[in-house]
Structures are given as structure tokens and as C-alpha cells.
Amino acid sequence: MADGKKDYGAITGAINSGITGLRNTGAKETLNQFSAMSKAALADGALDTKTKELIALAIGIAKQCDGCIGFHTKALKRLGATDEEVAETLGMTVYMGGGPSLMYAGDAWTAWEALKDA
User: Fold this and answer.
1) Burial class (CB in 10 A: 0-12, 13-18, 19+), 45
2) 61: which residues sit within 8 A by CB, 6+ positions away?
3) Are 7 and 1 spatial neighbours (Cβ–Cβ below 8 Å)?
4) How far apart (Å, rounded) are the C-alpha atoms in residues 79 and 53?
5) pLDDT at 1 over 60
């Protein structure tokens, strides 16, 4: 990260290494089941796989998960996502990340107003 940018290739590589180590322990069945769940969740259905990966990227951003961002960005590249698709997904992530905070801030202000003079 000499230039201030995160190296998502290194991040995902390190995570893959750790996952490989876990797979060789008593966690093997758990990891196998997680892989099966991932495969089922990403299968084409009412939503195509690319759309599901865009959703996963948005959730990874919202959860501040560097590994998620790296893995889902790689998948989106593989699936042929466009700059515009990713940019619109990021725009929605910013919008929704701020929206829930605004809702709770409104609730907090209402509570403040009700309690400050009590």
C-alpha cells in the first residue's frame, strides 16, 4: 500500500491462503457448506448472477469488508460488468449507507426533543 491504495489482489490472496488452511482443519465441513450456499445463492434465477454479484459488492461495501470488495469485484470483472453498472451500484451503496443513518438521526432528534426538557 505504498501509494495509499489497498492491494486487493494481496488481500484476497491472503484470505484464500487462510481459507485453505481452515479447510485442512476441523472446519472443512463448514467451509464446504459455505461454498455450497454461495453456489446456490449465486445461481441464475429471477436475478442473474451478475446482478447478484453487484448486490454482494454493495453489501461488502456497507459492511466495510475489504475481502468481500476484492472477491466480488473480481467476480464482476469475470462476469463482464460495465463501469456504469458498478458505478450505479456504488451510488446506491452510498445512498443507502447514508439513508439508514438519516432515519435513525431523525428518531434520535425526536427523542432528544422529547427528553431534553423533561
Assistant:
1) exposed
2) 68, 69, 90, 93, 97
3) yes
4) 9
5) no
What residues contact residue 22 under an 8 Å CB cut-off, 6+ apart? 28, 31
Other CB atoms within a 10 A radius of the CB of residue 30 amount to: 12
Grid cell of 92 as nine digits: 446506491
Percent of the chain residues topping a pLDDT of 90: 41
What is the amino acid identity at position 82? T
Spatial separation of the C-alpha atoms in residues 94 and 61, rounded to whole Å: 9
Kindly list the domain boundaries of the chain, sorted by start residue.
Answer: 8-116
What is the CATH number that goes with domain 8-116?
1.20.1290.10
- Written as nine digits, the cell of 69 is 470488495
User: What element of type H or E holds 25?
Assistant: none
Give me the pLDDT at residue 63, please: 82
Query: pLDDT higher for 51 or 83?
Result: 51
